[in-house]
Amino acid sequence: PWPILLSAMADIVSTVREVSSNHIILTMIILAGGASLFVGNAHQAQMPEFSRDLGFGSDGVFYSLLLAANAAGALLAGVVLESRSLLPAHPRSACILLILWCCTVIGFAISPHYEISLALLFIGGFLDLSYNSMAQTLVQLNAPDNIRGRVIGLYNMTHNGLRTFSGITIGIGGSLIGIHWSLAFNAAA
Asked: What secondary structure does DSSP assign to 10-71, as a single string?
């Protein structure tokens, strides 16, 4: 297993070197990795506690609605983005969408009202899918033909792989200062 792991790490380092001069690819990989590292999907596992803190207990319809709001926003984004050319792929647009997504996560984290939290999760789902699909599109369009698969793999590794650590950053912070402020500070980062 060690030779395979070392070979994989060498491929990752080689790919990073090859795309390090392409600012669009590098920026999109850093955006995806940062969002995954600091927020990822760790807050979804903590929805029972958010639901309880919003006054509706940790199970049942109200907890499910919080999870469904995020998914419904992403579904709407998929339909809207596929049916219209509202958001052309541009690095600045991806950055703005990510910043707006972080703002909705911060708003959700500190909101004391269930209805506002529900709306912010819906908007957050829309923005999450929007910036992720735009960032991946930009990586695909700008990757050199000869290493496109490796570049997309690097993007997906940072986007999905770094989510592992968001549970740690939000969880440890949550045990120290509470999940609301931990999530808010991580989204701000």
From this structure: HHHHHHHHHHTT-HHHHHHHHHHHHHHHHTTTHHHHTHHHHHHHTTS-SSSHHHHHHHHHHH
